[in-house]
Amino acid sequence: MTIEYLEQQLEKWKRVLLLFLGAGLTLAASTFGITGAYTFSLGWVMVWIVLQLGTIPAGLLLLFAKDWRQLPLPQRLNTAFGFLGVGWLCWLALGFRISVDSYFPLAFILLLGAGLAIIYLLRRRAHTSSPEEIFP
């Protein structure tokens, strides 16, 4: 694959990311205000599964696939971690659903999100070029 083709594909992946982000935010917003015993509807679970199967593999593919490694990491880093972030948001929605009984799953999911954010910031910082001196 050529670099130009991968750049075009990356733009398409960015649009797909926006679709998944909207669905993930809607899924997370649907969990607020639930009190008492939780029940999972078939539709909610199916949307959660589709979002997980669509976001996590896409993020890992953009980070680690052989063809995508032809593009520099700073070009694809935001999109890849965007997909992984939406996947985490769906796990957070699940954590909100089951946190009625115990807060341990929610705390674990929040810890995973903090780890994901730290990895993203460290990778981004490592690939950010240092500013040149304006005045020598």
Short descriptors:
4 helices, mainly alpha, 136 residues, 73% helix
Note down, in words, how this protein is organized:
It contains four helices and no strands. With 136 residues, the protein is mainly alpha-helical. It has one domain. The chain is globular, with a radius of gyration of 18 Å.
Protein topology:
Blueprint: H1 3-29, H2 42-64, H3 73-98, H4 104-126
Helix pairs in contact: 1-2, 1-3, 2-3, 3-4
Net shape: globular
The total tally of domains equals 1
Radius of gyration: 18 Å
Largest sheet: none
Mean pLDDT: 86
Task: Give start-end ranges of low-pLDDT stretches.
Answer: none
Summary of the model, kept short:
This protein is an all-alpha fold. It contains four helices and no strands. The longest helix is centred in the first third of the chain and has 27 residues.
